[in-house]
UniProtKB/TrEMBL annotation, chains A, B:
SUPFAM superfamilies: MoeA C-terminal domain-like, MoeA N-terminal region -like, Molybdenum cofactor biosynthesis proteins, Periplasmic binding protein-like II. Residues 187-324 form the MoaB/Mog domain. Its cofactor is Mg(2+). GO terms for cellular component: cytoplasm. This is molybdopterin molybdotransferase. InterPro entries: MoaB/Mog-like_dom_sf (IPR036425), MoaB/Mog_dom (IPR001453), MoCF_biosynth_CS (IPR008284), MoeA-like (IPR038987), MoeA_C_domain_IV (IPR005111), MoeA_C_domain_IV_sf (IPR036688), MoeA_linker/N (IPR005110), MoeA_linker/N_sf (IPR036135). It catalyses: adenylyl-molybdopterin + molybdate = Mo-molybdopterin + AMP + H(+). Keywords: Magnesium, Metal-binding, Molybdenum, Molybdenum cofactor biosynthesis, Transferase. Pathway: Cofactor biosynthesis; molybdopterin biosynthesis. CDD domains: MoeA.
């Protein structure tokens, strides 16, 4: 242990960014016009042609000398002799003399001698003449040579991002190749003995490589081109070779992982051996074990191993460099202002980037912290972005305004946030809400977590099914858990029981048979687990022992499934002999079921959310005949 | 003329969109994980694995039985015998017995018998023992099997757009191929005898094809894949063949152009011959001559020829279909709320999509109409989006709130809007403003247009150099043009004169020699043109004639260049024998110059803009030593 190194010279996030500034540079390449979408123009474009390149009719009608039409009106139309016709694309060999006209199409070349066009709607023809019923002034319905863009004019400025309208201008001035900033090529390496490529089969101890794909998507989003260089084990020579080769070929090299103390030592000394370490770690949470170095005059960034940390540091440190190189505007991500839904504490002493979820409130966004462990990939889905808490900030109060940096431009925030117990009925609600144009985010944390989320004011609604010792569902917990300013809305009745493999090979007859059988449990605080514990406690008491002793005799009692379906899957896969869950899920999966009791699945709704359009829509759905029909199909019963 | 057809059965924009709904469908394809960025998930993803797949240490430290640490503190650490070490990726063959510990790295498999990890910071080692200085509870610093994502759990829902965070989850559950909605392939055809590909040389009457590239960029932006099928002439057989072939190969076929009365007849009858015409035109401005049809069960949309009309109808009618097919959210474009800067009238009787520019005001956006002819491509650059004016709306008042549909997601609005005369000094101001972080949009409409833009309240500032009959610059026009609530800020002095080809081959000595020479003029209302007309008027009077007669003897007097550079270019290219402009531009282009008089180039600033940060920065720049130095380099003189 003694040779392990702590990160001794942590720098601020700001200084970490500054360490990379020497590598901010831009290369230029020419691309075909039809491939320049979303690229950034690298040079000013001066038009080499006039647009249009000739005096052009801008209406269908007749090219005339304006003077010849003066005085014309509906009563006394002016007849002009038609001398011919000019179509768009024709090179006209015809001219307009006094008292004559030439039929002309939109976009066609104006004939010599004509200085205006009478719209076809203001004429009629009789024999060889056209009768003009409305006068025109010189230049009317004519676009002069260069009136749109003149030869020599600055048509587009360097630095412009090319969207449909800029590309239109490039086409109009005749460019078929466009000078744009080169997308930096970013070599992406994942390091770690535990990593495997998605699509392979894992052995114990292995996990799939996530960071390569997360970083690759981030590279694209910021204007770069990712190159996936695969997984490198924690072997000095392999790592050195991979990084040295990569810095020769790519503009930027990003690795991730191997930042646990032992492996990161290896990285430090390796980078030191072939290049220069610029930053030894950042005074920030998460992301402390970040390495910045250089080799072959190219920057090298070693990101932390946890995906959420890796993405955060990538966004803060690497993305601005990629954006500069590709000419994108400096501001990396959309920021939105929101109000904190709860009080947040920080230890202080280092900057904290706190992941938050966002929810649409009546006229503002509300932010709530995402508190899963930093190792959880799924927490990325619940978080929409993060807030920066400075070193000296210790508390952000409920209601304080915060600026949230979004993880992605494409994020849309839910209209309804449900945090609580999982139920198939919530999937139906989500679907029916979506048909009404509302988006729902539902986070499964069990009934107890649901009550807490309402108490804290985070969630709009929570699905709950908690049984009180007195045998009453849900309602007593509003008081016992101090959930104020909330309304309990009765939902429906589900049948809970034991889910067993088809044919019940272990011959389980009830909860009393669980000891010695491989069990799969549900999340702590979930209604299902609470029910299980109440029933097991009765059995334990009957046997003159305690709940703890009884549960220690049930292997797998500690394994927590977050959803009913996950329980069914574990049993289908042979990973467990039994689990507790609802009848519907057992039936859907063709599994055996021993009923234990009916339970009441209800919704706790935050009082201040009751007027939100999304909550009104939610309540309408709960009351609707369609919802009742669809939950009946699931085998649920309406509330008595 | 008699056989020409007017569009008789115009439908509303809403009905035009509805005509395409039968073609809204979605196909699914599988793509590799590293190519799914920004695609939309087509099927629910249920995890086939537990994440993590084993009980995992979430910190560097020692795996222990929690009980063995209870009671430990700084004074009385608990010694545990170290039984070995487990690295990330190891398959451990080791177990923790009472009073023992196993060293463990973040991400490594927990050994049998251990139920918690003591962080390395809370330990020290002595010989074969580790001394634990802080107790842990069961499960502390351990992530249990499936705690992140459990086998069978719904990891991602169909319909989710895949950004970095969703891709992280797909990788974590081990997917290497992802079912996404297929990007619809859109065949793009341009029609018209006048069209040529960019990169070719134009002959008289020809213009470059703009719409193919504008539409192609729009297809990408909305999630589709453009296929460029080239230019088809207005020939029945060619058009029929191209469209029939395209509808066999592509999901959607978009043509543009050939919508002038004669050509569109051809299109109608052609589409009728091989398919079905669904819509004969839309009751909207711009975009009336739009055709919607079907052939081979595929939709066919014929857009108008003018680029701004084509893009508008594409956005309204075609983009929603492409978005549906690729699974993108229905809302095609960002909408922003703005206040109209000026009163706008509409004829009524049909819906109008009015292009507007947007400008950042103190706490809101302000929208001003873009009034260039619909044939101008450059007008696309000045417009940021458009507002929808319904059939029955005749007036939108100044200050009314309007909803602006943006042309592109990537648009950013300028902080300072300058509308007026063009000057090289404005390019310097733009550059210096950009260094201060402010964006400037400058629209060149001449001095008179600048005064008008300030009077209407559209622009923040206008560069002007208008000479009064009394010989005073700019100031008298505030009164004579009724420009109220504005401030005149003195700028600098420029030298105006005749720009001539090098060596002055025509031997021009002054304005009196212009008759009979090919001239290039500036925009009506520009200060340069006003100065020219004042001087020419004196000459005409001296010769006993009128200005009009004199100018009729100067070929090219009607040709309007929008910038000084454009004048110089025309002379360099041999297109003109003389033009009026500033000395600086003549010198920069190596052209001859005959001075006429010094003129005062000043800025009119809208009074209500004076407190805008961007205007304050602009005023600072005008006063700065750097600006004075840089305009001196251009040959301008500071104001006396």
């Amino acid at each position: 242990m003694s040779e392990r190194k702590e990160f001794r010279t942590l720098v601020s996030l700001e200084d970490a960014k500054k360490a990379l500034i020497p590598f901010y540079k831009r290369d230029i390449e020419e691309v075909p016009l039809n491939e320049c979408y979303n690229r950034v123009l690298a040079r000013n474009v001066y038009s080499r042609v006039d647009v249009p390149g000739f005096d052009r009719a801008s209406m269908d009608g007749f090219a005339v000398k304006a003077k010849d039409t003066w005085g014309a009106d509906e009563e006394s139309p002016r007849p002009l002799r038609i001398k011919g016709i000019i179509h768009a694309g024709d090179k006209p060999d015809i001219s307009v003399e006094p008292s004559t006209a030439v039929e002309i199409a939109t976009g066609a070349v104006m004939p010599r001698g004509a200085n205006a066009v009478v719209m076809v709607e203001n004429t009629d023809t009789s024999g060889e003449d056209v009768n003009v019923r409305k006068p025109v002034s010189p230049g009317e319905n004519v676009m002069h040579t260069g009136a749109d863009i003149m030869m020599g004019e600055l048509a587009l400025r360097a630095g412009t991002r090319l969207t449909s309208r800029e590309i239109s201008v490039l086409a109009a001035v005749g460019l078929d190749r466009v000078a744009v900033y080169k997308k930096p090529r970013v070599g992406i390496i994942s390091t770690g003995n535990e990593l495997m490529m998605p699509g392979t089969i894992l052995e114990p101890g292995q996990i799939y490589d996530v960071n390569a794909y997360a970083v690759g998507a981030g590279v694209i989003e910021n204007g770069g081109e990712p190159v996936y260089l695969g997984i490198i084990r924690d072997v000095y020579e392999d790592f050195q070779k991979a990084v040295v080769e990569a810095t020769k070929k790519y503009d930027i090299v990003v690795t991730s992982g191997s930042t646990s103390a032992g492996a990161s030592d290896m990285m430090f000394s390796t980078v030191g051996s072939f290049g220069k370490v610029l930053v030894h770690g950042i005074k920030i949470k998460p992301g402390k074990p970040t390495i910045i170095g250089e080799a072959n005059d190219r920057p090298f960034i070693g990101l932390p191993g946890y995906p959420s940390s890796a993405i955060t540091i990538f966004n803060e440190v690497v993305a601005p460099m990629i954006r500069h190189m590709s000419g994108y505007p400096e501001k990396a991500r959309r920021e939105v202002t929101a109000r904190m839904a709860v009080r947040v504490r920080s230890e202080g002493g280092r900057e904290v980037l706190l992941p938050v979820g966002l929810i649409n409130e009546k006229d503002a966004l509300s932010a709530y912290p995402i508190e899963k462990g930093s190792g959880a990939v799924s927490s990325l889905l619940d978080a929409d972005g993060y807030i920066e808490i400075s070193e000296d900030t210790h508390v952000i109060d409920e209601g304080d305004k915060v600026s949230v940096k979004l993880f992605s431009e494409e994020i849309t925030f839910p209209d309804l946030l449900m945090i609580g117990s999982h139920c198939l009925g919530i999937d139906i609600i989500t679907e029916m809400m979506s048909e009404k144009g509302y988006t729902v985010r539902s986070i499964n944390v069990g009934s107890m977590g649901g009550f807490r989320a309402i108490r804290k004011g985070i969630a709009d609604a929570a699905g709950v099914h908690l049984l009180d010792e007195s045998g009453v569902y849900n309602e007593p917990f509003l008081r016992s858990l101090n959930v104020e300013d909330a309304v309990l809305i009765k939902g429906y009745v589900r049948e809970q029981g034991l889910i067993l493999p088809k044919g019940n090979p272990s011959g389980i007859k009830g909860l009393e048979d669980l000891p010695g059988k491989q069990f799969i449990n549900r999340t702590k605080g979930s209604g299902t687990r609470t029910l299980l514990d109440m029933e097991l406690k009765k059995i334990a008491e009957g046997r003159g022992t305690t709940l703890q002793v009884l549960t220690e005799s049930i292997p797998g009692y500690d394994v927590e499934a977050k959803t009913h379906n996950a329980v069914a899957s574990a049993i289908l896969m042979g990973k467990a002999d039994a689990g507790l869950g609802i009848k519907t899920v057992a039936e859907q999966n063709g599994l055996d079921f021993i009923p234990l009791r009916d339970e009441e699945y209800d919704f706790v709704v935050k009082a201040s959310s009751m007027n939100k359009p999304a909550v009104i829509a939610f309540m309408d759905i709960l009351r609707s005949a369609e919802f009742k029909k669809r939950i009946a199909e699931l085998g649920y019963k309406p509330q008595a």
